[in-house]
Design brief:
The complex is a heterodimer of chains A (about 325) and B (about 325). By secondary structure, chain A is an alpha/beta fold. Chain A has twelve helices and twelve strands. In chain A, helix 2 links the parallel strand 1 and strand 2. In chain A, helix 6 packs parallel to helix 7. About 5% of the residues of chain A have low confidence. With about 325 residues, chain B is mostly helical. Helix content of chain B is about 80%, strand content about 5%. Chain B contains 13 helices and four strands. In chain B, strand 2 and strand 3 form a beta hairpin. In chain B, helix 2 crosses helix 11, helix 4 packs antiparallel against helix 5 and helix 6 packs across helix 10. The longest helix of chain B is centred in the last third of the chain and has 29 residues. In chain B, about 55% of the residues are buried. The chains are: A alpha/beta (about 325), B mainly alpha (about 325).
């Protein structure tokens, strides 16, 4: 019996040290006296946030601050994101930049950051204004693109390229997310005064490529005469392009996406995709770190720091 | 023999937790502070409570994949009840009722439909998730009053309320499991279902109750989660089933049923909580965190199988 206990203990000790060994080389940066800025992302398995991290890291290296980037495993897991914020507060970070996984839900964790006197910068997805005000959370700045304006850009482009006459399908993100809702509102507002544009179907594909494929395939079954599809993100748009190819309709249906991912730009250059609204996530990352450093130095930031948007089309992608 | 073996295993798990903590203490000056330990306790509560139900089910030789979806469905039922102006106790009963109802359906189909629990609860995972999304049209229900939110934000002395709720749940669930005939039957059904049936125990009834316990625990977790987020999300609780199974298995409960304890499950949940917290403090990337947690799960079960054939001689 005693031997069994001994064996178990040894096994777990070995495991724990394996864990420690893995972690060790990552733990080093906190040792010096440079201030640490935390950047909490929604996820790191999306090119958008990978770009944001790159921009942030470049700025951090240039300005001589430590950057701690953390993200939940899944984009929608706001409870995990709260845990990350709570844990980071313990490590003595000097500023927190965060892309909220839930505009209302994350407020609870930000209350704790505020109680610890950590300045907060909101990136990409805005906080719910009412929830933040109710909880007394003030933030230093919002850094991001105007998603509503981006949606309008896409809508105006749709009207222009179809000559104001089209049957339109929409692939939505996860319902209830400020980012996706704003893009859709912008798109709908841009096309609503054009009587020839009819939105025949609008369904969520939850930001994902495979769901974009499936949902759009089903839409095509129900409405074979769709002329144009607007996807609130490029991953969904790329899924839709595959579904169009599978139906043998490449070139007959225009696809407008959002984010201008590398894959989307390739598709635009190849002519399988009409256009995509470009955001500049690495700019957001850069501005977030620069803003955080200014706040640490005691400077004030403007309430909104807007990052430009651009319509990427076949003409502009060639340049 | 079995109880001595279980005790040895549990002892090993506790040592594992202590060693892990010691390593993190050595690596991070932020680990061993009162505030951080309270964070860990609070961050562990939801998984720990879901894992209570999972332990009952796994002890009886079953599995419950629907717990995460039941968390979401109970949560949105609770949120809707609160927003329609129901009193807090009424809303809590609604949430618990929804959880128990899902569990009863699971258990009844497993028992009398004679389907494998994996299939039944896989179906329920999708049904409950779909109902939560349908009911809310995919949108979170949010914004509750302070009274309700104190279930997550409140403290008694310095201990967060969710930690106290979790403690009470574990004490009650442990007593039921070890001191009542129902608890004995949970082990007996998992150990040898046929023998238990032949000794005159109504397997169907008891299995149904076991899945109802799991549904109830998911609902309790839903209450704590909704209060914590100040929001009931229909997409909440995804992958909770895997976290709960991991806590149960790390805690030494056998997936074959009949062997294990709630004490082990609590330590298992704490190991996962401490690991996640520690890896956050150390700034380990979320990708590496998943690898580490996966390795710990496999390692713990490896220890189990390694230990078993030798225990008789040792």
């Amino acid at each position: 019996m005693r031997r069994a206990e001994w064996r178990t203990s040894v096994a777990i000790v070995v495991l724990a040290f394996a864990v420690a060994g893995l972690s060790c080389n990552r733990a080093a940066p906190a040792a010096d006296d440079k201030p640490t800025v935390a950047l909490v992302l929604k996820t790191l398995n999306h090119p958008f946030f990978v770009d944001m991290r790159r921009g942030a890291q470049e700025a951090a290296d240039r300005l001589g601050v430590n950057l701690q980037v953390q993200a939940a495993e899944r984009e929608v897991d706001v409870e995990k994101q709260m845990q990350i914020v709570e844990n980071l507060i313990q490590t003595g970070i000097k500023a927190l930049a965060i892309t909220p996984s839930g505009s209302r839900e994350i407020v609870t964790a930000l209350v704790k950051a505020k109680a610890a006197n950590i300045p907060i910068l909101i990136v990409d997805t805005r906080l719910d204004a009412k929830a933040a005000a109710d909880a007394g959370v003030q933030t230093e700045a919002y850094i991001g693109s105007d998603n509503y304006a981006g949606g309008r850009l896409a809508g105006d482009h749709a009207v222009k390229v179809t000559g104001g006459k089209a049957r339109v399908a929409i692939l939505e993100g996860i319902p209830g997310h400020e980012t996706g809702d704003s893009r859709l509102r912008g798109f709908r507002d841009a096309v609503k005064d054009t009587p020839g544009i009819a939105i025949v179907s609008s369904q969520p594909a939850n930001w994902e490529r495979d769901q974009g494929f499936n949902v759009f395939q089903n839409m095509l079954q129900a409405h074979p005469d769709i002329d144009l599809v607007f996807a609130a993100s490029d991953l969904m748009a790329l899924g839709a392009i595959e579904a169009i190819a599978a139906a043998g309709k490449t070139g007959k249906i225009r696809v407008i996406g959002f984010d201008a991912l590398d894959d989307a730009k390739k598709a635009i250059a190849a002519g399988t995709m009409e256009a995509s609204v470009a955001q500049f996530p690495s700019e957001m990352g850069r501005l977030a770190v620069e803003g955080a450093v200014k706040v640490i130095r005691g400077e004030k930031l403007p309430a909104d720091i807007m990052v430009k948007l651009e319509m990427v089309t076949k003409d502009s992608v060639k340049q | 023999m079995t109880t001595r073996l279980a005790r040895a295993r549990q002892f090993g798990t506790v040592i594992g937790l202590l060693v892990l903590s010691a390593v993190l203490w050595a690596l991070s000056p932020h680990f061993l502070t009162v505030a951080n330990l309270l964070n860990i306790a609070q961050q562990t509560t939801i998984n720990a409570v879901v894992a209570v139900g999972m332990t009952y089910v796994i002890l009886s030789g079953g599995i419950d994949l629907s717990v995460g979806s039941i968390v979401a469905l109970s949560g949105v039922a609770l949120g809707a009840a609160l927003q329609s102006g129901q009193a807090l106790p009424v809303a809590l009963v609604v949430a618990l009722g929804v959880g128990v109802a899902c569990g009863l359906v699971n258990g009844a189909i497993v028992s009398w439909g004679r389907l494998p629990p994996f299939i039944v609860t896989l179906g329920m995972m999708s049904i409950a998730r779909g109902m939560a999304l349908l009911f809310t049209e995919g949108r979170p229900v949010s914004g509750f009053d302070e009274g309700f939110r104190s279930l997550a934000t409140g403290r008694v002395g310095f201990i967060p309320v969710p930690v106290i709720i979790t403690g009470v749940v574990y004490v009650i669930a442990h007593v039921v499991l070890t001191k009542t005939t129902f608890g004995r039957y949970v082990y007996a059904i998992g150990g040898n279902e046929e023998a238990t049936r032949l000794s005159g125990v109504s397997i169907g009834f008891h299995k149904t109750m076991i899945y109802a316990v799991s549904g109830l625990m998911s609902a309790v977790a839903a209450i704590m989660l909704t209060a914590r987020l100040n929001s009931a999300q229909p997409i909440a609780g995804m992958m909770y089933e895997l976290d709960a199974i991991a806590a149960t298995v790390i805690g030494g409960t056998s997936l074959m049923g009949g062997e294990g304890s709630l004490g082990g499950t609590l330590v298992g949940a704490l190991i996962m909580g401490v690991l996640r917290n520690g890896l956050n403090l150390l700034g380990v990337s979320s990708f590496l965190q998943q690898i580490v947690i996966g390795a710990v799960i496999i390692g713990a079960v490896l220890v189990d199988t390694w230990l078993k054939p030798r225990a008789g001689r040792g």
